[in-house]
Structure formats: C-alpha cells, structure tokens
Amino acid sequence: MAKIKHNNFIDTVDEMLSAAKNEGAIHLYAEDKILSGRTIQINAKEMFHFATTSYLGLEYDHRLKAAAISAITKYGTQFPLSKTYISHPLYHELENKIEAMYGVPGIVTKNSTLGHFAVIPTAIRDEDGVLLDHQVHWSVQNACQLLKLREIPVEMIRHNNLQMLEEKIKELSSKCKKIWYMADGVYSMFGDYAPIKDLLQLCKKYAQLQLYFDDVHGMSWKGKNGTGYVLDILKELPENIMIVGTLSKTFGASGAVFITSDTKLRERIKNFGGPLTFSAQLEPASVAAASASADIHLSPEIIILQDELAQKITYFNSIIKATSLPMIAPNSSPVFFLGTAMPLTAYRLVQRLFNEGYFVNPGLYPAVPVKNSGIRITVSRNNQEEDIKGLVQALEYHFPKALEETSNTMNKVSMAFGISKITQKKEKLVPQSSLNLQYETSIKQLDRATWNTLLGGQSIFDWDGLCFLEDAFKNSADPKNNWSFHYYIISDNNNVPLLATFFTFGLWKDDMLAPESVSLQLEEKRIRNPFYLTSKVLGMGSLFTEGNHCYINKAHPLSKDAVELLSEQVEMLNQNLNADMLVLRDFDEDVELNRMFHNHGFIKINMPETCIIQNVSWNTIEEFTSTLSARSKKHFTKEILPFEKAFDITIKEQLTPNEIIQGYQLYKNVKNNNYAVNTFTHSIDVFEKMTTNPHWEFILLHLKNTEETQNVSPLVGILFCYKNLDQTYVPSLIGMDYAVPKKFSLYRQLLFQGIKRAQELSYKRIDFGITATFEKRKLGAKVIPKIAYIQAKDNFSMEFMGTLQTK
C-alpha cells in the first residue's frame, strides 16, 4: 500500500548526516597523542574542546587511570562470563560504593542503552502502560518498542507538557495497573530539566503514576555524592521512582547504574534482565576506574569539583547573556544550544569555529527537529575562563557571518524556536533586479495561457481545474475541507518564467502516510475528536491533486536563485499562517534540489508512487491488450474483460440529485475502507459542484439484475473524472459497493472503463493517481516514484505515531 516505510526514515537520516559529514561537521577523528580534556586536535589543528559530555573531566584523573592500569595487570583485559553466573573480583567493591552513594543498592550494567533494554521490559508488567516524553533519550524510546510486542500501551506526550500528561494518565487509568512516565532528568540537546516537583504533585494525585528518569546528563556534577540532578531534587528515592545514572560521561569510567528502592523489582531485574543475563560484563579496567571515581564521589572532593564547574557555567551564562546570541532554554546545566534553524547555517558556523580553534557539535535531525538545527555547546571543568570568553567572542563574530552567507536571518531563527524576535535588516537572496515575483491568492489573477503552458495538462491543476478547486474548497463551511490558495510565478527581467507553483493551506491528518494499523487506532479517537492529531499544513499542490506541482526552468542560469527565492517566500508565508508543517511535494529525484532543500531545513521523504498511462493511441481491445505484458494480458482477458457484459455502463456529464447522493455514499464506502492515504472525507458539496462544472464527467456502473445480484443496489460503481485541456483524463475519485461479489472485479472494471473513455475522447494521457499501484500496473500504467520535502515545527506527531501498535 502507499505508505511510508521505516526504511525511508533510515534513508532520510542517512542523507541528512551524510550532508553533515560532507560539510566536515561530523565523523571526525581526534589526532592527539595525549588527551587533556581542555583541547582536542582535528585535521592537524588544536582546538579548545566544548563538546564533551564528561563535565567534570574525571576520565583524566590520575587515580582512575592508575586503578584501570592495575586492574588490567591483575585481572586481564576482560572477564568473559555472564554476570548471572559470577562477577569478577572488583564488582562487589563497586556495588558497595554505589549503595553508599545512593543509600540503596544499584544494578550495574554494561552501558545505559543495554541497561534500558534489561530494565524496562522487566519492570513494566503486561497490565501496565507507558507514557514517553517526546524528547526522552532514543535508548529509552527504543527499549519501549519491545513492550508493544506484548500489547502494552506505549504513548507519547509533548515535551514537558504536564496538561497532556495528565490527560493521558486519565485515559489509561481504567486500563492499566501502573502508568510509567519516562523522561530525562537533564535533556541532552537543550540542557533543560524535567519538571520534577510538578511530577511529584501528579504522583500524589494519581497513585498509579510511576516515574522513570534517565539522568545520565545530570550525573556527578549535581547532587549529594554526585548522584545527579533528579535525586538532588527528590532528596530521597520513593518506591514509585526509578533513576538511571551513568558510570561513563561525567563519572569518568564506563557502564551505567539503575537505582530503585523497590527491593522485589531490583531482584527480579538482576535475576533476568535480558542483556544482564546474556551480555558480557564490564571489563576489569572499567570497574576499577568506576570504583576509584566512586571514592571521589563519596568524599568532600566532589563538592569542590561541582563548585568549580558551577563557576564556569555561571561565567558562561553571564557573558552570553550580554550578547544577542539566540541561546535556547537558558539554564544552569552544562549543556547549551545555540539555534541556527537551518542545517546549512549550523555547518558553516561549526566550520568557522573550527577555524578559530573551538570544537563544538552541530545539533541536527533526528536529535532535534530539522528546523531547530543549531550548535550544542558543553562547558566542562577543563575549560578555562579565557577559553570560554574566546568562544563567546568567536560566536558573536561568526554567527552573523554564518547567517549572512547562508541567506538566513536572526528573525528566522527566532521564529523557528519561538523566542523573542530581534530586528534585523531584511536580506535578499538575489538582487531585486534579477528576478520578478508574482504572488496571488486566486488562479483568476493569473493569465490562463501562461499557467497552462507551464503547469497545465496534469491532474486537476490546469487553470480551469484550479478554478473548480477554489470554488469547492475556498471559504468552505467545513473546517476539515477549507483551504486557502497561494500562487507563485518567478520570472527574469525579460519575463521569461523560471518557476511556477501553487500551495494550499489547510488541515491534514498527521497519519496521512502512516501504516494503516496506526490510522485505524487514530480514527477511533477521532470519533470523539475529529481533529485529533491533525496539523495546519502549507503544502505544495493540494490533497486533491497529484503530479509535478512545480515548474522549474532548469536550463536558465537563474533557476537556482528562483528556487532559493521560492523557499524564502513560502517559509515567510508558512510563518505568517502559523502552519505546523511546510511540504514541498511530488518531485522527481534531483541531487541539486536535495542539497538546496536540505540546506533550508527540509527533510526528504519518499511519497506514494503515482500511476500514469501514456499510450492511449490504440483503437481496438485487441490493440489495447497488445500494449500489456504477457502476464497482464492473461489477467485482463480472464478477470476483467469477460465481466464487462455484467454491467450497464453510463457516462454522464451531470448527475441527478439522487445519483449524487448514491455516488457520494459509494465514495464514502471506499474512503472508509481504505486508509492507504488517510485524508479527510470530502463533503458532499464538492460533488455537487462537480456535477455543475463542464470539465467533469461521471462513469456509472449498474450491475445487471441476476439471481446472484438481486440484493445489490442498482448503482454499484462510479468514477469521478476530470477532463484536462483535452490532453489528460483524470479518474480522480472512485466509489464502490462492496456487496458486489468479488468475481465481478468491480474495482478493475472501473479502471478499465476509465481507460476506454479516455481513448474514446482521444486523450493522450491518463493520470491514475496513487494507491493500488499493483492493479493499475496490470492495466498498463507506469508507476513513478515521487519524493517530498517537509519542514515541521517539531517531530512529535511522527514520533508519537511510532509508539502506536502496528499489528
């Protein structure tokens, strides 16, 4: 079916990160002979290190290094046995120290990712439910995928949205014994915190609520004994809260630790916790280093180290606040994020900082929404004040330069992140004299011949077709089918068109291209709330049209400038409309466009394939069958052609009121039985306007009355067909009676009648649209892959749907 597959997501991420690699921003190698934590050498250049997640720099402490060396000397490089059978000699000492730090025993795992896979499926019972914060770490979300196999409800809430969390708790309260909310203590990209005190109030209100915190980025630099941000707020650990800490990152060694005061749960995890049972244990060197670090955490020295880091964080905050740099989620954690909005700006800024001698990381999709790209900066105890001051000065100088060279602005960044706007002179992508832009909100304001020359002959978006669409959907009383229209034509000074396209703005279902099982679940919720998981989308073309919605004169030397100008204009429109998503759709694969749209903050996805028939020049059925493959010819002659005589076939330019009602019901039958592309059901007035429009006609199939069909209504099938410029025949919508016995192949018969009608009218092409590509290919259709570029405010809807069951 016409759905987006998981492979498409992987391919998209691969393409995004490949672009970052090509820009020299990721997949780098340190070249140092000796590491100190303050600097790092890359491509023969020494840089100050502002990207570490070891905020206290303990991995360089001589005590940890000496302990690791001694352990290797005494015990070798590994202890290759499952910890279920026996732990190597240093484990017991480490576990005792972990208990001393937290006040309860801990479970030591190889790392936090494997730990989540060990703990989560064991801790969450079949009668429980799980709610995930949208920004909780990937490793937590991935471990929860295992729960779906047991049909445990796993849902997602928007980041730190307590109102949504409470609503979800209420929804699950009657179905679940315990409801687990999973979040980070300190979030790894923006450095903001979980609202722990507010969550504790929810726990008092809802006894079922359990809290699960991944606090690896809050570890060591915060809390008594360095036990982390979460425990620093809690002070004591209640039984309904589990904390995940780390023995790597700021702790300076390797591994992770899971803390719960629920003794029975702790023993159950240790007895059989997946990777705990079947994976290797930590190497002796790692355990020894962790044990040495635990000694520091249990001593007064940890307070001194924490204070030293806190001073540097305070210093960074004090000087960054004196600038106009757009820092996202300012706080007192060691993690900071400078927003750039566009990925290309992030790449350029990273490279500029590298050249100045400062190593930072880009924050990119999928770790952040693509339009929320930026620079992640971390402050560690190893950074000196002069390093910090130099970094901020470099940012102040290079950030505006990176904006300018990527045609970005401070206001664009502000709008992308929803922060206070900063007035800045508007920049133009090209000199005003180079390109002329015509923007209109109705096709009637554009010249018919010009539009049809550029974009006519496809689907239903020739000039007359757009007149119909505006009449049917513009200012509609039905909010689900109310669209505004936006037209762009860009030309050079000689009035040579370089680009032409149109957009519609309206509501889309977020699961439009999701698996059908997801759509079925969401449609149950939409019975009560028709607008559940819907978004305001500014989309190229419309949900009624398919094909190449954007004409680009690629041979013209200014074509790239025209695309850049269009991108700038529609992003401005997108912001003015307060849309949730911007979609550029139905493109053929194009390397140059991929690069340009990626740099503007779009991600590429594969769209459902479209089907066209380009050979309608035959005169007889025999000639038609000769255009088919041998297999398709056999299928046609045995399963379609013999049943044509079972139907009375009528072609009408207008429908009676009763036929409109019957045809609309048949259309709804198909719509309600097919979630291949899940859009809103069109209202009946769209069909009423079709029957008064001279460019539409209707192919009606009545099943002849026989003993086998006596219980079937007379009108059993209908095609709603648009006639485009005497060139393209467009069977746009279909309606069917599912009571017709399968042997009559009603759907295939309707397709065949559409093909016959196009040939009778001497049309050159048939636009058969998306879905059912297998059936259309059998009748000679060519299947064409299409791609789209999307830019969303956040990734919530996509990731939320990923948590739903897909049986």
UniProtKB/TrEMBL annotation:
<keyword id="KW-0808">Transferase</keyword>
<dbReference type="GO" id="GO:0016740">
    <property type="term" value="F:transferase activity"/>
</dbReference>
<protein>
    <submittedName>
        <fullName>7-keto-8-aminopelargonate synthetase</fullName>
    </submittedName>
</protein>
<dbReference type="InterPro" id="IPR050087">
    <property type="entry name" value="AON_synthase_class-II"/>
</dbReference>
<dbReference type="InterPro" id="IPR015424">
    <property type="entry name" value="PyrdxlP-dep_Trfase"/>
</dbReference>
<dbReference type="InterPro" id="IPR015422">
    <property type="entry name" value="PyrdxlP-dep_Trfase_small"/>
</dbReference>
<dbReference type="InterPro" id="IPR004839">
    <property type="entry name" value="Aminotransferase_I/II_large"/>
</dbReference>
<dbReference type="InterPro" id="IPR015421">
    <property type="entry name" value="PyrdxlP-dep_Trfase_major"/>
</dbReference>
<dbReference type="InterPro" id="IPR016181">
    <property type="entry name" value="Acyl_CoA_acyltransferase"/>
</dbReference>
<feature type="domain" description="Aminotransferase class I/classII large">
    <location>
        <begin position="74"/>
        <end position="395"/>
    </location>
</feature>
<dbReference type="GO" id="GO:0030170">
    <property type="term" value="F:pyridoxal phosphate binding"/>
</dbReference>
<dbReference type="Pfam" id="PF00155">
    <property type="entry name" value="Aminotran_1_2"/>
</dbReference>
